[in-house]
User: Which sequence fits this backbone?
């Protein structure tokens, strides 16, 4: 938890430094917190599918408590995001924002309706994790979390371009599955036999996630940026460049883990504690990249 908070803080400070004075810091904080929590929820809902059928119920039980906490954090962040966005749209201080203004924003604007969908998704996920803890609930939670994750993306700055909207949505979903599953593995897998079963499946799935992530990211960047010089002359471009660099570092680390850690884990030659520690560095880079993506969404 402390490591994740530190990585989130690093991402926020980097986003502020790259876009000052353009960045809306409060909106970036709430967007980043909501996105990270939603990603964790999605990963926890999907992680039982990485194990063999015999042990899926065990992983589902292990993920239940963490999913409840993550869903609660997601809901709080989404509500905060709704209020900060409503205040920014109405150009009034958050302290003087009224209920009527908030309702009008949530109902009358495309961005507000997207935020409201995300709030409802987080609330529904929270209810399901408390009252309906079955394998079928995990599938439902994954679907709802995916909807909540992509709602704002579909209503964002690329929503007016069909190709750009599809590209950034696929990019966001691929990143959410990849990052969320690794976080879920750290939170739920407790012994090296389990790592030996789930890590190869995660590695295979992550390859497809990376392909979709790269294609979607390149497509959305091409649509958004008019010229290569904007990569360093605008705050948005500098955020894109920073995200590319962190993603490249993440891909390098992931490939190293695939060629070194994966064979050892598959052969039961590495402890569960070592596997968890090796995941932390990758998760830290993922958190910074997700925070930069949140800043991109707010800045764009």
Assistant:
């Amino acid at each position: 938890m402390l490591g994740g908070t530190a990585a989130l803080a690093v991402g926020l400070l980097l986003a502020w430094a790259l876009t000052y004075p353009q960045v809306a810091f409060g909106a970036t904080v709430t967007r980043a917190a909501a996105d990270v929590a939603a990603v964790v929820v999605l990963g926890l809902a999907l992680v039982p599918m990485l194990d063999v059928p015999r042990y899926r119920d065990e992983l589902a039980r292990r993920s239940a408590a963490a999913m409840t906490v993550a869903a609660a954090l997601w809901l709080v962040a989404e509500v905060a995001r709704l209020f900060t966005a409503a205040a920014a749209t109405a150009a009034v201080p958050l302290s003087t924002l009224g209920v009527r203004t908030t309702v009008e924003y949530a109902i009358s604007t495309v961005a507000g309706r997207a935020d409201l969908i995300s709030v409802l998704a987080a609330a529904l996920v929270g209810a399901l994790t408390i009252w309906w803890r079955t394998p079928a609930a995990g599938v439902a939670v994954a679907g709802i979390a995916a909807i909540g994750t992509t709602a704002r993306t579909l209503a964002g700055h690329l929503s007016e371009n069909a190709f750009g909207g599809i590209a950034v949505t696929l990019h966001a979903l691929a990143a959410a599955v990849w990052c969320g599953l690794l976080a879920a593995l750290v939170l739920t897998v407790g012994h090296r036999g389990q790592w030996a079963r789930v890590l190869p499946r995660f590695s295979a799935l992550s390859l497809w996630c990376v392909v979709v992530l790269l294609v979607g990211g390149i497509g959305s960047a091409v649509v958004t940026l008019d010229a290569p010089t904007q990569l360093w002359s605008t705050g948005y471009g500098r955020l894109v460049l920073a995200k590319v660099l962190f993603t490249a570092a993440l891909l390098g680390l992931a490939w190293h883990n695939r060629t070194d850690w994966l064979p050892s884990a598959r052969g039961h030659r590495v402890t569960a504690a070592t596997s968890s520690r090796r995941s932390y560095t990758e998760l830290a880079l993922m958190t910074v990249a997700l925070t930069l993506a949140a800043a991109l969404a707010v800045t764009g």
User: Anything to note?
Assistant: The chain has one domain: 2-299.
